[in-house]
Write a structure and sequence with these properties.
Layout (H helix, E strand, L loop, with lengths): L6 H19 L6 H8 L3 H7 L3 H9 L4 H7 L10 H7 L5 H17 L3 H27 L9 H21 L4 H15 L8
Length: about 200
């Protein structure tokens, strides 16, 4: 009986090789030959799944959020992630998160000239903004945040803050601890005063 091939797993395997190369050398280091070598497969095998380098890069763009999602879900199952947890997970505070940030930045440059990749970025950003806004709305409704906080606007501000902080940490302008302290400072400005118990 012929062995059944998990085609999605193979595509993910190739995308993971693309991300590793991009983190180390940028997208200029990504070629069909290099990806095949990194993945431990033949160039023909890569071409079986992706007709061109562009096709491969476009698919790899759809996998960029996997590292972030893993960091967010790494919290104990009994603890729901907070807005702060999500924001801290966006920072390049360890090797894996740093690699994810380097890869995202490499693809961001590519997105400026590739409408499909740009579309993936817009979709991903919209999903992330909606997730942050939903968490902010829930925290506001629970009385943890000021009642004047507008979730969609605050989510946009927070993601803009995270973009700048992430680049600052990557480039060494700020340490991870300084970036987290700035997140805490901002959140303290929208945090409701705890209710006193009688």
């Amino acid at each position: 009986m012929p062995k059944r091939v998990d085609h999605e797993h193979r595509r993910q395997q190739i995308a993971a090789a693309v991300r590793r190369i991009a983190a180390d050398r940028g997208l200029e280091g990504v070629s069909l030959n290099e990806v095949a070598a990194e993945a431990g497969i033949s160039k023909g095998f890569v071409q079986h799944y992706f007709a061109s380098r562009d096709d491969m890069l476009r698919f790899a763009t759809t996998t960029l959020r996997s590292g972030l999602e893993e960091r967010i879900t790494a919290a104990p199952p009994e603890a729901d992630p907070t807005v702060r947890d999500l924001l801290v997970a966006l920072l390049p505070l360890d090797d894996a998160a740093r690699d994810d940030a380097l890869v995202a930045n490499a693809f961001l440059v590519r997105a400026l000239k590739d409408a499909e990749i740009a579309g993936h970025f817009r979709t991903g950003h919209g999903q992330l903004r909606d997730a942050v806004a939903a968490m902010i709305a829930a925290a506001r409704d629970d009385g943890d945040l000021l009642p004047t906080v507008e979730p969609a606007t605050e989510a946009g501000l927070l993601l803009a803050l995270m973009s700048g902080l992430g680049d600052a940490v990557l480039l060494g302008y700020q340490t991870g601890e300084e970036a987290v302290a700035l997140i805490d400072l901002h959140l303290s400005r929208i945090t409701a005063t705890p209710r006193k118990t009688p």
